[in-house]
Amino acid sequence: MRQGASLDAIAADGRDVVPTLENGENNEMETTRQLHEDSRTTSSTSSPAPPDNESDFFLGANDSQSSLGVPNIQDMQVTDDECLPAVQRLPNEILIAVFGRLGNASDLLHVMLTCKRWSRNAVDFLWHRPSCSSWEKYESVCRTLNLENPYFCYRDFVRRLNLASLSGEINDGSVVPLAGCTRVERLTLTGCNNLTDSGLIALVSNNSHLYSLDVSLPPPVAGRVLHDHITEASIDAISENCPRLQGLNISGCQKISNESLVRLAHRCRHLKRLKLNDCIQLQDSAVLAFAENCPNILEIDLQQCREIGNEPVTALFTKGNALRELRLSNCELIDDSAFLSLPSNRQYEHLRILDLTFSAGITDHGLERIIDVAPRLRNLVLQKCRNLTDAAAYAISKLGKNLHFLHLGHCQNITDDGVKRLVSMCNRIRYIDLGCCSQLTDDSVTRLATLPKLKRIGLVKCANITDASVIALANANRRPRLRRDAHGNFIPGDHSSSQSCLERVHLSYCINLTQASIIRLLNSCPRLTHLSLTGVQAFLREDLEHYSRPAPSEFTEHQRSVFCVFSGQGVVGLRKHFNRVLAAEESRRSMRATIPVDPPIFPPPGQTFPQLVDASGEDADPDAIDEDDVPEDGSEMVIDTFGLGLHHAAAGTIPVPPPIPAAPQDPPPGAIDPPFVVGNATPSPAPVPQHDPQNHAFAISATPHHSFPEDIPEEAAQPGVSVNTQEPAAATTPPTEVPPIQAFMDMSGEVGADVDPTPPSTTNQP
Questions:
Q1: pLDDT digits (tens, 9 = 90+) for 540-594
Q2: 185, 159 Cβ separation under 8 angstroms
């Protein structure tokens, strides 16, 4: 940080200013002394003391043998502190408590530049954890630490160092300036793969106060080469110089020998947190040494340690006092024996997290034993434990309200019965993953939707679920609930409703889902931040690609083509996009509904119209949605199965004929209204209706203004519309557009009309 160097520069400049301040204080004291002398020689009520009177007996209490006297400064006991502002009179303990609440380094720097006293009380907070988020800041910190005559000994204030953000630039030479920081408690070097034993040994050699050390390497990534330079020499240096070590993370360091870890376990007996995942060289002897010599272990991570067997797992339980987290993912040698050998008269109530991913040897019997000895498990990961059945789900249900996180992905023997039991007994589940549980149906998801605190649900490749499951999730937590008073009793008649808690929903490869249910889910779950729909055909559209996350580079071409995952602002954008489409369709429907409707006259079969084009041809509405894409679960958008041209054709320009009079009459001039004109189009001449006395049908003698179907059968007529075959009168009314025939169901599920949405077929007859 630059503030350290700048502070020294300011302090150096201020050395010339301090004498000036001291001279000012001396002048003030001289003035006070003169006032003191003046107060002894003056009095407002008494005469001056005689020169021969040297006794001060009567003046001890300002008793000058007079009735009244003015007290002098000595009697008033005036001090300089009473002249200082209130903030300057605060004790150091109060200032430290106030400065400790300033989380911004810039604010702390301004505090240090206020005065020396504030600087002394704030410097510890500013240098407790210097910021090294960029290389420029790191260089500034190193320059300040190497100053010859610093105002403060900054290296003694450094307690935490985190160089993870500079992992690609850190090497042995760049950490040399930090070797003088001998009071570091936490040292984080995550991903610094250019650091070797030489640099690490220099950092830990004089740090007897070190509590936590992280030299882990990230998992290998395609296209990135990681160098592992940490060996047993570094572990031995840690063992000798850091006896107070409590946390060690050496994940991915595969050059560390098993024997050096055994020596570490014997010397660092205060270890509480160990992360040894991806240390494939680790064997049972090292874990047994930690279990024997470090009884206070709280967390231990042994993921990908494939050489670990049952014995060290049992030892971690029996030798430990407060084991809280145990991760054994991909430890393929572990089976039921690791837990069946635990003593029956002891429970491990501290255990909260247990990860047994890919432990194919774990069966229902072993899991029942785990639940019996660890009744307060909160997070249970059983992914790819393929031998588990509904009996395991029944055993897990004994955890009751303690269970918050459950992962049963790829447990294909789990059925609806097991899920129902879990929901009925464990109503505080917040995260549940049932991906690839192919036997689950809508019944399970409907039950899961009733969990009041559900935040994440994984249903990837649950091919049997349909829109009913998604709608159940959308409607979750929207039911009224009774309120409780201060004593926890229900208040009768007082209800409350809360928003859905769902934040992450995984529905990839649930091929039966449609857009309508997802739209309802988006609008009903305002907290939703992640939605995966990979492989769902209804969402593999170009207009939605803008809102989806880019596919990972390591994916194949096929995987990238079906990738569809929305997160963060992508979910917000997807919600707005669908709502805009819905609003546009609703606006179109409203505009058509506001125009008065005159029932059209449908000619009988056999009557043809010239120059007609089918609605699905060239003149069809380009915005019309294919009927195959129309969801039918009660929440679809307004969709018109006829093209716009067909609606105009249905409205037509044929006037409604009045009843046939007794004798034919000539129509009065000017009685025929012009046809209906859309927009600013120039009205075309109205076709003149002609009466055919043979079949009382009408024929169009002029070219029609709109396209009509060539033939509309009688069964296509709407209910309540009849064909009038009487003689038409001259007076007509303006024709209007017919409202859409297809039934519409809005998002609330109310059915607009019970009409067959399939348009009538058209035939051409000579």
A1: 999 999 999 999 988 999 999 999 999 999 999 999 999 999 999 888 888 887 7
A2: yes
Question: Is 139 a member of any domain?
Answer: no
C-alpha to C-alpha distances, 752 to 192, 330, 572, 595, 635, nearest whole angstrom = 64, 55, 29, 18, 11
DSSP state of 617: S
Count: domains in the chain: 2
| pLDDT number for residue 482 | 64
Domain boundary residue, one of 563, 594, 625? 594
Q: Return the amino acid letter for 531.
A: L
For helices 515-524 and 569-594, angle between their N-to-C axes, nearest 10 degrees? 110
Please indicate whether residue 617 or residue 505 has the higher confidence score (pLDDT): 505
As given in the structure block, the two tokens for residue 112 are: 């240090």
- Kindly state whether residue 79 falls inside one of the protein's structural domains: no
Residue 331 scores a pLDDT above 90: yes
Q: Buried (b) or exposed (e) across 468-497, using 16+ Cβ within 10 A?
A: ebbbbbbbbbeeeeeeeeeeeeeeeeeeee
Where do the H-state alpha helices sit in 146-296?
197-204, 232-241, 258-267, 284-293
- Whether residues 749 and 647 share a domain: the answer is yes
- Look at residue 542 and tell me if it is in a domain: yes
More confident residue, 65 or 140: 140
Whole domain around residue 512: which residue ranges? 475-480+498-594
Same domain, 584 and 722: no
Q: Which two tokens stand for residue 531?
A: 């939605």
Mean pLDDT is lowest, of 86-90, 158-162, 257-261, for: 86-90
Evaluate whether residue 564 is within a structural domain: yes
Residue 624 has pLDDT above 90, yes or no: no
Domain final position from 565, 594, 623: 594
